[in-house]
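Open question from group meeting: does this chain pack into something compact, or does most of it stay loose? Before anyone orders reagents, we agreed to write out a predicted structure and look at it together. Recording both the input and the output here so the notebook holds the full record.
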Amino acid sequence: MICDGENREIAVLNVPHLVPRRAELGARVDGKTVLVLYYLDRRGTHEELAEVLHVSRATYFRNHRQALERLAHAVFA
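C-alpha cells returned:
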C-alpha cells in the first residue's frame, strides 16, 4: 500500500502489523522511540502515538521533550 502525506499516516495506523505493540518496545517507551515513530516513521499524530504506545499524553510529551533536548545537546554542544 503506497500513500502520501496525511493519508499515509492514517493507512499505516490502520495496518495492525505495522503498529508497534507495547511488548515489542519493552516496559518503558523512551524518547528515542517517540522521536523515531513520529519524525522518521511518521506513524501518526502525537495523540495517536500516545494511544498506540499505551502511555498518557503527559508521559508521551515529557519523553518527546526530553528526547528533543538530548538530541539538540548532542548536535549543538
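Observations to bring back to the group:
The first helix runs from residue 5 to 13.
Residues 1-15, 17-27 have pLDDT under 50 and may be disordered.
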